[in-house]
Structure formats: C-alpha cells, structure tokens
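Re: the request from the purification team.
They wanted to know what the chain is likely to look like in 3D before they choose a buffer screen. I agreed to run a prediction and write the result into the notebook, where they can find it.
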Amino acid sequence: MDTPQVEILPDAASVASRAADVVVAHARAAVGSCGVFTFAVSGGSTPWSMFAALVRLDFPWKRTTIYQVDERVAPTGDATRNLTHLRESLPPDTTVRVRPMPVEDADLEAAAQRYARSFPERFDLIHLGLGPDGHTASLVPDDPVLDVSGRCVAVTEPYMGQQRMTLTYPAIDRARALLWVVTGADKRDALTRLLAHDPSIPAGRVNAERALVLADADAAGS
C-alpha cells in the first residue's frame, strides 16, 4: 500500500489555511478539466476552520457540489448534525449545491442506497478526519460497516449514542484524491497508526494512494 504525502504544520490554524489552499487547487483543476468539482466533506471539528479559510479565497462555489462523508441520524437543525455546521460555514451570498445525507428517512438502508446513486463515478476530493480511536468518516472500530464491500454508503450501529450514515471504503478508495486533516495531541497515537497503515484501526484500512495528510505539531508529536 502506498504511503501518503505528509505535511506537518505548526498549529491548527496553519493546517486549516493549508487545507483550504489544497481544496482550491483541486477545485480549479477539476473545473478546468470537466467544468465541475465534486467534494465530499467529513464532520468532526476540523472542517469548519478549513471552510472559514476557504471562504476568504477565490473558490468556484457555483461550480462545486458538496456531498457528505458521514452524518448522524438526527433531525434537521440538530446541533449534532454535520450538515448544520456545514451550512453555517458556507458563504451566505454564494450559491453552492449541497447534497445532504438523507438521515431523516424512515427506511435508512434504502435512503443510503438512493444517496449512493447520486454520486459521480469518482469524487474529485474527499476530506477525512481522524478520531482518537482511529475512526475516520463514521467507519468506527468493530462496526459491521467496516466489512461492507458492495455498497458505497452504509448505516452504522449506534456509536457514541447515535446511529450514523457513512461512505464505505469502496467509495473513499475510488476518489481521485484524499485530504486528511488531523489536529490535536489526542490524535497522536491514531496518526502514527494511520501512517503505518495499521489495519487494526479503521483509518489504517483506507487506501493511501493519492492521499495528503495535513497535521499540526501536536498531532505529529513534534
């Protein structure tokens, strides 16, 4: 398995700024090549600082479609929903297409498959975070979705009190590029194991080809 490119930056703010620059570069390349940019965004704490930096840059919002990497099963507007924070992070005066995960449907399994049918053949860029327990997206330790190979979206068992919908490994590994954003000393062990391709953590099972890891000094232990 290939080793991802790794950049260590001084702090979380530097990581967010660099991540925004990387996203812009991918967006411009995709728009220049095929006219649109497809971007899948994870939840957690890191993407919102990245978006705060992104809105200050010359970004092709009108040519971009944003998908969700994962989402908690909760009502619209719920503070735990990644979508709530995503919409708050987008520039209010710019039209951007957001395709939310349909986590409010009564039949979540059918909704997951419907969401997968809306995907491009390959996402131009997928943003991933990393949990202290080594999870990424909502691919969490010991969940049956880790072994899903024939579907691009699956529904997890409850994790930290909530069921979730998530991209699976096939969807993530098919992306043209992956951008990992990792900050904080509590991620140090998980980051070490990610970079070692340790399959005992969910993140270690992601294909590292075409991946860039941006980490701050705390997460890298430097």
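For the purification team: Residues 121 and 186 are 35 Å apart (CA to CA).
Please add any questions underneath this entry.
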